[in-house]
Amino acid sequence: MQQLSWMAPRAMRHEAVIEEVMAHSPVLPARFGTLFSSAEVLTEFVDQHRETITLFLERVADHGEWSVKGRFDRKQSQQVLISTNLTAQQEQLATLPPGTRHFAEQRLRRDLERELSTWLEQTCRKIATDLTSYASDFRECTVAPVAHSEGGSAEVLNWAFLVPNSAIAPFQEYVERANLNHRSQGLLLELSGPWPPFRFVPDLSAIGAP
Description:
By secondary structure, the protein is an alpha+beta fold. The protein has seven helices and four strands. Helix 4 crosses helix 6. The model has no long low-confidence stretch (mean pLDDT 85).
């Protein structure tokens, strides 16, 4: 399991099998490396959790997991916001002495930075709320601690939605509209799916763990 050259092709095969089954029926995906010592132990485990498994399969029928990740280019957004506000206040700033004007511009930049953080938080919250209206369930996942990309953006959100097949088109259209509205402000959503519902699998480890 520590050798990527050994693990990667097997993990990909594991995922391919799950996706193939998902194309024909609802599926409860097990994590890669889940093992049972025998068919009898597996049968016993399924029997112990039969009700939970059945309810889950009924819940995810005709659904898929969709991932929405958001990247934010703070530098780009700052430049747009500061440029717009400095231009709007140019006449007022021009009347100030050079030293006073410098401090006024610095104060304005600090205020705009706080405004930018508030805008990002409120915008992401609204997008999550709107997207949830198309979904049966929602998970807010951990944002990977990855360095900024070459373009200067960083991941700021990582969401998973359980979306019914009937709502896929409007769900996708909403993401496209959000990108059109917010791309110039440095916020870009990355949509992928449908995936097996890994993020929504119930915890079956409490009793009769494999």
